[in-house]
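Hey, resending since the last one bounced:
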Amino acid sequence: MTSKPDFSALSARHLRFGWGSLLVFVVLGGVLEAMHGFKVDWYLSFGSETQRLMWRLAHAHGTLLSLVHVAFAFTATRCSTEPRVASACFIGASVALPGGFLLGAFGGGGGDPGVGIALVPMGLLLMLVGVAACLRSLRP
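The structure tokens again:
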């Protein structure tokens, strides 16, 4: 009888990454809410709609991807083959997606985001590959 592979170190890494990044993005969300609630002029001024949208998208995607890491940490313990590709892709996506939105808030003009937004499609691709690799690792 073959023993089940032990991916507990990988699982622990994603639990730490997930909960740590969740803390960062919850704080970001709190700061954004506080600036809106206290009517911070430079945050609410006309012409900064794109910047606010990019920050909200960074917060939302970062928060969601943090929870993906927590779910992946538990999924990794059920994998039949090492989910190393999925692990790397999820970490890359967690940097590229919210990072692209954060960087896209700067340097744009006329309602367009800055060049940092170019990281977002790369993050999406990493996320898709990660999900497919995770699914493949779960095959019996």
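The CA atoms of residues 78 and 138 lie 7 Å apart.

Sorry for the duplicate.
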